[in-house]
């Protein structure tokens, strides 16, 4: 009989509290500030977010209870299974053991509903009837569409036009869940109209879509805006992933030597890793790796600065690693990893030396993803392939050192809605991209004159 | 705390044997015959299938061991979870409890890999290096592509041209798993070339694709043909579904009053139901319902006859309910349910009075599927929506009678690759279709002169 290949949990094993890493940080997280460098208080965010979520955003309480109604909805698919990737290990010929947390089992196919559900709940509790958001590749738009339907909210999604045109199936998913999805820039907002007047055939961008979604939220009745990553409360909602994984690894009789997640805005990485970062803060010897694309090397090549979340600088300035708010990444297929900045909490724990970051080129990621599909069956999302490639590197090193190594990765989503990237890869139409230093320096000029975050 | 919402099983709970209903049939299944009415022996099938699978096809042994290597691959995603559809029940306002077995968690997104894996294994064991098959909507082609890759076989899929053109993502999935997928009719076979010569712009059909795949198999070196439904051994491979469900229902402290599955070729329905049919044969009081579309009412309006599996009559004659081998169903979106015949074993247990059949129109199915997505989150495959609609009817009846009723349905797959059907439904572009009696009678003329199966 082969060794055990998975650990499944029952309803009762799902966490009843989220873990808030702000309670355990060696140094406190610098606050968001205005262009004058003065901290932005909770009240300033009230037109954009409901106050109960703003309270979570600034909370330093270690454990925060998950409301019963949120638990009920998360139980539609959670707890998610933890698998051991026996067949992938065998193909690599490694002595390492590779475990993966399968977040692709959610109805939307990724980890995103873990925060969409509580965000919809807290908005409804606060009396909000309608949510707006932006989406790039569409994972987040789908998750929020589903969550809004489950809680009876109206949902409006501004989808970057080029994705809207190229990925019609994501829009259809949102429609099935009752959401309205429009291409951005649209003629529904001042921000959108201004862009269209200047560049009628723009492909759009996440930054433009954010501007439209925020404008819609603050100018419409009973409406707020919802964000799928970056913010503290969003990352905290994802910690159910890591908390479950800790329990499952324990049931396997293992503790990981390495924990790996891909990073775009930071929520999927934080979800698997923050409970382990907590262990590390309290003395555990563990390597925690955030994996980004070489085409968008925020953590590995960006400076730690105060920068805006969007190109139009509508958001407060956040303390984070950034490539500059005007940075436009190459069109790699891992759309969820194409963001100029990084969640302040992920940036902070990197600065604290609690995690490491690595950038991996696209072709190596696809190669690992195809090997995964050929051995484990499941087709990974292009974002997820970055975590798989990093795990393969760790496994190879273990092999070279002749050591067993326990690797845990967050398998953040399946790639069934992203098959064009695989097609391009298999037809030899993809290439790697290394960001030229000149381009990076030019992009970082946008940071000139902005406030500078305090040293640790 | 809400009532338990799921039962998950560990590796050790996966069945180690398939259940073969042929051991328990009140009357034996009539054999396949030639046009002369004489039984077709195993040897006649040897050019098409490997002998180890032919042995399974004719076996009357009740339990057949699942080989260790097959178990290893099935464990990549099995056992599948059993959920209770609390939120769907609540929306219906029914006192019924609705449980569903989620076969959408497989890498291919449906129940099809349950037989693709053992078929690839037995062919490899028999020394076969290459498999051919046909696929309509693409579920089966994807499952076999994955299974072949896992066992190191070459896989060639003939995909009905209209689906090949309209569903490029299914082809990409097959490519990721290393299979070659060509549009049928192709110029690679005599059968294909003959059709193309007559009708160069034909949209193709499953019957043509079957002819091409069989011709390729019998004329190529070390190659056999693989079928995704209809045959006895295929249905038997699917019984892991029902055997797991029995265990899971027991862990819930329940036994179903009603078991429901949709039927096209019959494998998904047989998978969930045959272990319960066994209980019924041994005295259990249980209702077992096969659900088909009104556009392809094989069980509800077809006669029980000897008919061919394909339009060109290349296959032996099978004892089954059939609409006539020349029947071309309307292009409804549940592509997996568009087959003129029905698995002999499913046909046989209907004739024995052990199961019931019902036909449901397309719009009612989509309506139920959308309600499901709005309450349970998961978007069902169009095929699966037929089982959901039947469960909703049962639940409504329970409500009218004021009775609790325990309903179990096979949630055969997710609909993420079938979103165009939802889009058409939500835009009001779908309609119902009732097969006119004249058309049915015309189609049944193809049966004239064929042998007639024995009475029970």
CATH topology of the largest domain in chain A: Rossmann fold
Assembly of the depicted chains: homodimer
CATH top level assignment of the largest domain in chain A: Alpha Beta
Strand order of the largest sheet of chain A: 1-4-5-15-10-11-14
Notable characteristics:
homodimer; 456 residues; alpha/beta; Rossmann fold; 2 domains; 7-stranded mixed sheet; 4-stranded parallel sheet; 19 helices; globular
Description:
The structure is a homodimer of 456-residue chains. Chain A has two domains: 247 residues, 3-Layer(aba) Sandwich (Rossmann fold); 166 residues, Rossmann fold, CATH 3.40.50.1100. Helices cover 41% and strands 16% of the residues of chain A. The first copy, chain A, contains 19 helices and 15 strands. A seven-stranded mixed β-sheet of chain A has the order 1-4-5-15-10-11-14, sandwiched between helices. In chain A, helix 3 runs antiparallel to helix 5 and helix 6 packs parallel to helix 8. The longest helix of chain A has 20 residues. The first copy, chain A, is globular and about 60 Å long. The model of chain A has no long low-confidence stretch (mean pLDDT 95). At the A-B interface, strand 1, helix 3, helix 6, helix 8 and helix 16 of A face strand 1, helix 3, helix 6, helix 8 and helix 16 of B.
Break the fold down into its secondary structure elements and pairings.
The structure is a homodimer.
Chain A: E1 6-7, E2 17-19, H1 42-45, H2 51-58, E3 63-65, H3 68-74, E4 82-84, H4 86-92, E5 97-102, H5 113-125, E6 130-135, H6 139-150, E7 154-160, H7 161-166, H8 168-176, E8 180-184, H9 190-198, H10 206-219, E9 223-225, H11 232-237, H12 239-251, E10 258-262, H13 267-281, E11 287-293, H14 298-301, E12 304-308, E13 317-321, H15 344-351, E14 356-360, H16 362-375, H17 382-401, E15 406-411, H18 419-426, H19 437-444
Parallel strand pairs in A: 5-15, 6-7, 6-9, 7-8, 10-11, 10-15, 11-14
Antiparallel strand pairs in A: 1-4, 2-3, 4-5, 12-13
Helix pairs in contact in A: 3-5, 5-6, 6-8, 9-10, 12-13, 16-17
């Amino acid at each position: 009989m082969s060794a055990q290949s998975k650990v499944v949990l029952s309803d009762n094993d799902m966490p009843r509290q989220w873990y808030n890493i702000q309670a355990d940080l060696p140094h406190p997280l610098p606050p968001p500030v205005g262009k004058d460098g003065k901290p932005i208080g909770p009240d300033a965010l009230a037109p954009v977010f409901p106050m109960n979520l703003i309270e979570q955003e600034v909370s330093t309480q270690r454990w925060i209870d998950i409301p019963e109604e949120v638990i009920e909805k998360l139980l539609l698919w959670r707890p998610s299974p933890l698998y051991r990737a026996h067949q992938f290990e065998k193909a690599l010929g490694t002595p390492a053991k590779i475990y993966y947390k399968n977040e692709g089992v959610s109805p939307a196919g990724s980890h995103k509903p873990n925060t969409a559900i509580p965000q919809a709940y807290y908005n409804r509790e606060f009396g909000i009837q309608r949510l707006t958001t932006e989406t790039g590749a569409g994972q987040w738009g789908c998750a929020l569409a589903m969550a809004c339907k489950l809680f009876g909210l109206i949902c409006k999604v501004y989808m970057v036009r080029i994705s809207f045109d190229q990925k019609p199936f994501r829009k259809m998913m949102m429609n099935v869940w009752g959401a309205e999805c429009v291409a951005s820039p649209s003629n529904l907002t001042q921000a959108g109209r201004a862009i269209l007047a200047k560049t009628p055939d723009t492909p759009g961008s996440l930054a433009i879509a954010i501007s439209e979604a925020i404008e819609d939220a603050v100018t419409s009745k009973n409406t707020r805006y919802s964000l799928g990553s970056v913010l503290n409360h969003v990352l905290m909602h994802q910690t159910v992933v890591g908390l479950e994984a800790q329990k499952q690894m324990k049931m396997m009789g293992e503790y990981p030597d390495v924990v790996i997640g891909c990073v775009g805005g930071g929520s999927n990485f934080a979800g698997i890793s923050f409970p382990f970062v907590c262990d590390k803060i309290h003395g555990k010897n563990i390597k925690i790796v955030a994996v980004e694309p070489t085409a968008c090397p925020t953590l590995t090549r960006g400076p730690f600065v105060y920068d805006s979340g969007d190109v139009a600088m509508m958001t407060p300035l956040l303390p984070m690693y950034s490539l500059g708010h005007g940075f436009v990444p190459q069109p790699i297929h891992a759309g969820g990893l194409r963001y100029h900045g990084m969640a302040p909490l992920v940036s902070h724990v990197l600065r604290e030396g609690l995690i490491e970051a690595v950038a991996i080129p696209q072709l190596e990621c696809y190669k690992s993803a195809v090997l995964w599909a050929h051995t484990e069956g499941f087709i990974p999302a292009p974002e997820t392939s970055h975590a798989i490639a990093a795990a393969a590197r760790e496994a190879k090193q273990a092999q070279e050192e002749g050591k067993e190594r326990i690797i845990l990765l967050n398998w953040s989503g399946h790639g069934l809605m992203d098959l064009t990237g695989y097609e391009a890869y298999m037809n030899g139409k993809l290439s790697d991209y290394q960001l030229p230093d000149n381009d990076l320096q030019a992009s970082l000029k946008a940071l000139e004159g902005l406030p500078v975050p305090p040293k640790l």
